[in-house]
Amino acid sequence: MVPADWLAGKTETMDSNDGGTVVLLKPREARAKLPAAPRPRDAERTKAEILRAAREEFCEQGFNGARVDAIAARAKANKRLLYHYFGNKEALYSAVLLDAYHEIRRGERELRISQYDPVEAVDRIIRFTFRHFLANPWFPRLMSVENLQNAKFVKQIENLDEIRSPIVAELREIVRRGHEQGIFRTDVDEMQLYISIISLCYFYVSNMQTLSVVFGKDLSQFALIQEREAQAVQMVLDYLRTLRK
After folding, report:
1. For residues 197-216, b (16+ Cβ closer than 10 Å) or e, as one string?
2. CA distances from 139 to 56, 109, 117, 127, 132 (A)
3. Residue 99 domain-assigned?
4. Where does residue 21 rank: exposed (0-12), middle (13-18), buried (19+ CB within 10 A)?
5. Whole domain around residue 168: which residue ranges?
6. Structural domain contains residue 192
7. Which of 47, 122, 171, 223 is an S-S bond match for 190, by CB 3.0 to 4.6 Å?
């Protein structure tokens, strides 16, 4: 069991890989569940509840298996309101997808990572990413659903810049500063580095159940989760510190 306060945005300290102390940053807390709202409902609350219900339905049933009737039932909303606010199933799914991207991007921007030294900056990026996936396990599932659609709906997003991670550009600056300090290599592609980071974090969460069976260990145990996170940080920093001759 992962302690709630570990995922709730509080901080703690631990020894860093270079012998110092690093303040660990937790991801933004998963959105608090809205209590059952009395009737009549205001429009924004109703739309938020429909989005949340749709997210659950799409993550559990996939795009093709999801049903508008089931989404309306989950949201305790009139199906006509669902169509009024979102138009159709495809538009609702697109809204869920865009909302998911907006949520993680907001968290990344709030890191304000440029204020930290290169090692701590990388440490914080990895821990935020890992803990965001842990706190929001629906996110990896939703990404899997969209990949099964061959990114059909992502391609339809008009402004792709709004879903691109700001971390990619920040990693370029972090690596540059690290090289100036003589601690990081220079032959680093920031896009590939970011993909490596999210892969190390994503795979553990998205495959936790099957891996637990294969290895005969409950990988949801807090100690193993901490071990996985620490190893992800160590692997990335070791790569960045390996200077090419």
Report:
1. bbebbbebbbebeeeeeeee
2. 10, 18, 29, 16, 9
3. no
4. exposed
5. 116-245
6. yes
7. 171
Handedness of CA 146, 220, 60, 9 (dihedral sign): negative
Find, among 96, 99, 123, 128, the residue nearest to 111 by Cα. 128
Tokens at 3, concatenated = 């302690």
What the block records as the tokens of 176 is 């540059």
Query: Are 118 and 184 contacting, i.e. CB atoms less than 8 angstroms apart?
Result: yes
How many Å apart are CA 46 and CA 81, to the nearest integer?
9
Six token digits for residue 178: 């690290």
At 203, list the tokens.
Answer: 């795979």
pTM of this structure = 0.80
CATH assignment at residue 213: 1.10.357.10
Q: What is the pLDDT of residues 92-137, one digit of tens each?
A: 999 999 999 999 999 999 999 999 999 999 999 999 999 999 999 9
Which phi-psi region, left, alpha or beta, contains residue 234 (left: φ > 0; alpha: ψ -120 to 50)? alpha
Model confidence pLDDT, tens digit, residues 44-85 = 899 999 999 999 999 999 999 999 999 999 999 889 989 999
pLDDT, tens digit, 9 for 90 and up, residues 205-232: 999 999 999 999 999 999 999 999 999 9
Number of domains in the chain: 1
Enter the tokens of residue 191: 């896009």
Q: Three-state DSSP class for 24?
A: strand
3-state secondary structure of 21: strand
Residue 132 domain flag: yes
